[in-house]
Amino acid sequence: MVENAIKEVYTALLPKTMTIADLGCSAGPNTLLFISSIISIIVEQCKSGGDDSVELQFFLNDLPSNDFNKLFRSIEKFKKPNTTGEMAHLPPLYYIMGLTESYYNRLFPRESVHLFHSSYCLHWRSQGPEGLEAWRKTYLNEDNIYITKTTTPFVVKQFQKQFHKDFSLFLKLRHEELVHGGQMVLIFLGRKNEDVYSGDLNQLFGLVPRSLQSLVLKGLVDKEKLQSFNLPVYEPSVGEVKELVMQSHLFNMDLIKQFEANWDPLDDSEGDNVEDSACSSMNIAKCIRSILKSLIVCHFGETILDAWFAEFRCLVAKHLEKEKTKFTIIAMSLKKE
After folding, report:
1. Could you tell me the pTM of the whole model?
2. What does the alpha-carbon distance between residue 314 and residue 301 come to, in Å, rounded to a whole number?
3. DSSP letter (8 states) at residue 124
4. Under 8 Å between Cβ of 10 and 56
5. Residue 248 and residue 276: Cα distance in Å, rounded?
6. Tell me: the pLDDT tens digits for 193-223?
7. Which residue has the higher pLDDT, 274 or 132?
8. What's the rounded Cα separation, in Å, for the pair 245 and 40?
9. What is the phi/psi pair of residue 85, to 5°?
10. Pairing verdict, β 17-23 and 178-190
């Protein structure tokens, strides 16, 4: 999808400088993989008779709390030439910059970006759902931090409203910043069907409050702190995403796909059996710890991290002994009308 988007923008617009933004870039190797892929695609286009004078401008965007120091140290190693062999075709000149801001704000001048890319980010909301705060000493989602089978329809509606508000705003902002004919490739967690109670994240994030509840019983976490904790997340269905794109009247949807990936990020098998629940539970727990660490530290303090991790890993291992669960992922390509 990224390759097709780049080729279409390049051949249709023939920009002298192509501006590409990676939204929610994080600081890991996937960011450099994306940059490397884009450069390789442009090299192939130039070899096929394209304008080899094109220059690339990459903007790597994430929140100010992202480890940009680590990211740019990695980039310096990435930019060192490979001395083991000669390249058949010189890569285009390219420039890489960091951009520290939420993508729920305007980031660029109008009509200045050719391609937006975002991977595993847009299920995160700009904030937690509104209207769940304490009222008459009662928290409306007190036993959960996301949506589970016991979540009331009112609370579900608040999560959905926040998604509709954020995603509609995201589309509007990116439409203003894209050049005419510019494209977006977006990959994020979703759910298989329209039943909001059947989402894959419901099960995984249902284990988090259970592990925190164990710390409440041990006196390590205040009960009211747990009751007031809600994740700023929502996994939409393909139908919800399509509806909001159509309502916006801003983009043509070139392609939208749905696929699955195992909870364990190191398990590429396609079967339904977990070969080593102890090993997989550790991989999953480490992954979720890295994702939720800043939220948990901000709300509960750093001292509970190790105790929570141990409780959470045990619950994940017990879950894997019963079933192998997968994430549902939505990938889509949009073109500015």
Report:
1. 0.91
2. 21
3. B
4. no
5. 46
6. 999 999 888 999 999 999 999 999 999 999 8
7. 274
8. 30
9. -165, 170
10. unpaired
Give me the DSSP letters along 170-207: HHHHHHHHEEEEEEEEEEEEE-SSS-GGG-HHHHHHHH
Write down the pLDDT at residue 293.
92
Residue type, 103: Y
Report the SS3 class of residue 274: coil
CA distance 183 to 9: 7
Is residue 232 within a helix (H) or strand (E), and if so which, with residue range? none
Cα separation of 309 and 27, whole Å? 22
| Closest to 175 in 3D by CA, of 98, 249, 122 | 249
Q: Assess contact for 110 and 32: CB atoms under 8 A.
A: no
pLDDT at 138 over 60: no
CB–CB of 26/62 below 8 Å?
A: yes
CA dihedral 73, 78, 83, 87 (to 10 degrees): -160
**Residue 84 pLDDT more than 50?**
no
- Helix, strand, coil shares of the chain, percent, nearest 5, are 45, 20, 35
* Cα radius of gyration (the chain): 22
Write down the pLDDT at residue 89: 61
Question: What percent of the chain lies above the pLDDT cut of 90?
Answer: 69
Q: How far is CA 122 from CA 7, 104, 164, 321, in A?
A: 24, 10, 12, 30
The DSSP symbol for 142 reads: T
Instruction: Output the six-digit token pair for 103.
Output: 């993508």
C-alpha 277/C-alpha 3 separation (Å) is 36
Euclidean distance between CA atoms 67 and 239, whole angstroms: 35
Of the candidates 185, 191, 182, the residue with the CA atom closest to the CA atom of residue 23 = 185
Query: Which residues does 290 contact at the CB level (< 8 Å), separation at least 6?
Result: none
**Residue 140 — pLDDT band, cuts 50, 70, 90?**
low
Percent of the chain with pLDDT over 70: 93
